[in-house]
Amino acid sequence: MTLLHVLDFQLQSQARRTGRTGFTLHVLHIELPHDGDRKMVVKLYEDIKARYPGHSYSSIRLFDDLNQPSNGTTTKMSNGPDIQEEATSNGGHKSYAKLLSSLPSVTSRTDVLHILRMRRTVDFACSNNCEGILWGDSTTRLAEKVLAETAKGRGFSLPWQIADGDSPFGVPFYYPMRDLLKKELVSYTSMITPPVDVLVALDSTTNVAAPVASKDGSIDFLMKQYFESVEEQYPSIVANVVRTTGKLEMKDFSSGRQCALCNMLLANNPTFVNGNSGHDSVTDGPTLELCYGCATAVPPESRHLIPPGLK
Amino acid sequence: MPPSICAVCHANRAVILRPKNHAKLCKLCFIQTFEDEIHDTILSNKLFSHGERIAIGASGGKDSTVLASVLKTLNERHNYGAELLLLSIDEGIKGYRDDSLETVKRNAEQYDMPLTIVGYDELYGWTMDQVVEQVGKKGNCTYCGVFRRQALDRGAAMLGVKHVVTGHNADDVAETVLMNLLRGDLPRLSRATSIITSTPSASDSELTNIRRSKPLKYAYEKEIVLYAHHKKLDYFSTECIYSPEAFRGSARALIKNLERIRPSAILDIVRSGEDMAKLVPGATNDSCGGNCATGGALAVTGEEEGEGGCGSTGGRTAGGDMAQMESQLRNNEAAEAAGLEMEVPSRAPAAEGRNGSSENRKQLPFRREKNAPKQQTMGKCERCGYLSSQAICKACMLLEGLNKSRPRTSIVGVDAMR
Ligand SMILES: [Zn+2]
Ligand SMILES: [Zn+2]
Ligand SMILES: [Zn+2]
Predict the structure, then answer these.
(1) Sign of torsion, CA B23 B167 B92 B106?
(2) Looking at the DSSP assignment, which residues form a beta bridge with residue B211?
(3) Most A CBs within 10 Å, among B169, B268, B287, B288, to test the A interface
(4) Is the confidence metric ipTM above 0.90 for this complex?
(5) With contacts defined as CB-CB under 8 Å, which chain A residues touch B350?
(6) Distance (Å, whole) CA A149 – CA B300
(7) Is a pLDDT exceeding 70 seen at residue B312?
(8) Ligand nearest A259 Cα, by number?
(9) What's the predicted TM-score (pTM) here?
(10) Mutate which: A182, A219, A274, vs B, most B CBs within 10 A
């Protein structure tokens, strides 16, 4: 939300100064299955569109509920250039739902849901000839990601997950708000006039007293709680986590092989799992190559549900 | 509910739910599996060579007691041909170490292994109790960590041993990975994940070339406790009375919560740490976190390494204090953002040296080398001969501070002690 506001402002002033703009925005909203009241979500989206006109907008659902009749996965709401979104372009997003519901834990479901959302975003950006994807992650969010991905066995992919620039997807990723704390964003949005607070989706965790981590929680959620509390006392440490992780090098893996689910580049020994590991071997048939993190998240019996890769 | 049957032998009743993967096992199969996995770790990483003399860093705690017991069993079962010795450090902590040393002495008899005890007081002229009396409870883990690392090497040199094994388990390694992410210390993160570390061999000192390895690196703390319990091992179960500092405490709490959410998380963090170690600037491709099939990965360690601290649970690093580091980082930021009151301070990639373990810089009165773990030129400490990137090693620096209030002592040279 903050990102949109700032970019909108920049575009407007650029247009005022020069009569043209250096870039155009395409705002994409991906609706997740658990986003709550659908009407509220759609209203929010429409309100945002009304507040910041002049950009292209799209809203797509990550997938339809399994038990709902599916007639196209796109809610077309574009008032810019018409966006065509073929429901069949990605092998049918029904398989997303099947894959997710087959996963054994909240952690795995949250993990894979985020990956699918990213893939969907990349798909969308590619089919709309976007030159890059801007993510709204704050420093705090990136620090959460660093520790959560580490805990999920995805440490190898961190350089690609938090860096500006090339991504393994062929579309560059940028994190324009990487230097801002979450609490800074919150206070910034509270100062905008006219107020935008009605436009900011309520973060479901923000006002909830931190429950003790239990089996119902996911690793992502645990880290979110953790860094929200660290941010209070130690904001510089939060920023330092992200800065430090940014120093990890993107090693060039000559193999050119990518994980079938998250698309991250695989090292030359992707299938190596220490004999003492709690999981099964990472290889699963000749066609599906998974990274350690995805193999941890998706048990062997669910792997046939992994949707085919991009393009 | 009918009793569960062991998932391995399919005969006996399962009495153990493995913390690592929730497999249901009978007692015998659990013990066998646990030992097999350690054996597998030793083989696949080529930790031992035939006929090697190996010192087990023994604290009397569960980790090193289990390590000694398992190594004795495996040495006989698989004919490693290793000569196993016990090496204990007496930090001089009353009510903690003196009791645990009694346990080690019993272990030495039970396992029929010779025991050597090296004391901080004889090496440094200070017991930890005296150090704490001098510097207070805060920051004393720094002293303990630095002194302990040297003490194990010195003890090994006295015994003429080239290899020391320690009881670090998967929980310890995972904790250190998270802690060093929080502290922003990539070199240390990378060293902590190596299963074998070695001091560079450039120098000919007796104190270099001593290998360290962690055969329990992939073993869960909970399984170590279970193993000790079912084997009825005699161990000492009190934590060090000097508690860990904020970073480690914070990381430890996270690990416990993560394990509850997903049991494999501990190993997953270890794996992430190994993978990230390969991406640390300066790491070479063959530095594969000790996890490559050739086992050829030797991470270079020096005095900077903080592993092997105090306590029955093994590694207690000289942890930085979160608040201290926060204020240090803030000062840096404030300096950068001076005059930009209403603007957000830029956190663009910082100059080298802004990161790193700032607590060292704060406490130590000498300039610290910037992050350059591998290419550091290692020399010898002018005072004690220990491996050091500075003219004076860390332990001697700490001693100098301590001794200001007391008649001068120096570290007893190795040769003098033999
Ligand atoms: Zn993957
Ligand atoms: Zn059995
Ligand atoms: Zn020295």
Answers:
(1) positive
(2) B163, B198
(3) B268
(4) no
(5) 243
(6) 27
(7) no
(8) 1
(9) 0.81
(10) A274
